[in-house]
């Protein structure tokens, strides 16, 4: 930061005047992390004062001036700080002095070299945009008189008009009027909200500004931004008064576009019952497809922020919403409700005739969606409604695999009791047993074995025994050995993995047990490898293979099963020396304990 910027930041008007008279460059940006122009710094300082008076949280530093509020996060830019300051009477005089000395009123902060700083710098990228955003009417006038370009497009809000129209204050309309009078293009595109009308429509209580823009010729159907159009923006973030203004001005209630596809879906997602009723009364098509959730009913069925939209669902069903409509993120409304345990909505949808076996969406079907969160009550409801416990589809293949992947042991038991096929060939792992073995799900393995799971079934990692070894789950390996599984059938080439060394950590299929040696080299790991060949002689009892534990009695990072008798000790020693973990003299026989000891748990 330059001396002039520091003086401006501190409000030292006499020092600023002295420096200007001495011929300093008023547009110098300086260098380093605190680089800012003087005018930028002045604007930033004004913002501090405004935000503090509004009871926002302010963290002020030379570069990172972070203002965290429910409305926005503003940080550090070169034209941010002292232009709106009704409290600090020195801010406007300093700004006038800098402008008179030739400060560039249209200066935009350059890129900082990293994404976070760039975002902060460009939230309001120039002085006029910032002045509009904080509602400083005198400052807006001053900058316009100094030649600020009213239609410059840059930063988070795109234009000064859009920034001013997103202001949650009565000053929003005043700022908008000033900018429009100065020639602001009411339909200029850019920024988060696409245009000024969409930005103003997201602010509850901002109907006066909306009317000003419409009177100035704003296109009520202008496309762009997060919400696609002003009506959808108002349905998502605005209020009934703004909806009424837009509908009265001729907004198409079924206009498509944006995140939610249409205004009705936006209101349904937010659970705004009054707006839903207004839109339906205005002719909104309750079954229109589009947007993230496919249709309004699915959007309403999704539980948002731990709040059920039960009333919204009732309104939509009463208006004729198709309870089995397909599409969107969850495929159906029932799957959306099941995905987050929305009990009341699940009941409503089933009562309205929702198909329990409808396919599609992220989880494949409602039963899988409910199994993901493990909510027994909803699962029982779905099964009672005829859900097929073995229905295929989705990421994991079936509900049983989902329950295993999420370690819902009680649910695994319930699904098996309901007839889940323990040997179904599904999902990426090939079988439920292989998934349980790889996923460290010991209780699930026991349940599956008890239900007749085939330990010889071939899957992604070969047999379940190989999956358990690759996952480093040796208590499960012992469970398989106890059933009579032959260790010699293990389809893992330890020598091959060891030869790869540290590079194997990036290999998804590498055995976790071997990976750990190279991720975190340690003496116990080296000792374990050193004596691995001694643990498994050709005639050793493979059901009582000893484990290695650390010096304090805790289990070491890995426990090794080697399927081929001896391995190359010199190779291991060389690899561990390269990894910095080999200590020849540190081995302690007490580190080896029998697998039947208390240290056996995985």
Automatic annotation (TrEMBL):
PROSITE patterns: ANK_REP_REGION (PS50297), ANK_REPEAT (PS50088)
Sequence ranges of the ANK repeats: 1-31, 123-155, 226-258, 259-291, 329-361, 398-427
GO biological process terms, semicolon-separated: protein K6-linked ubiquitination
Keyword Ribonucleoprotein appears in the UniProt entry: no
Superkingdom to which the source organism belongs: Eukaryota
MF annotations from Gene Ontology: ubiquitin-protein transferase activity
UniProt KW keywords: ANK repeat, Repeat
Protein name, as recorded: Uncharacterized protein
Organism: Ramalina farinacea
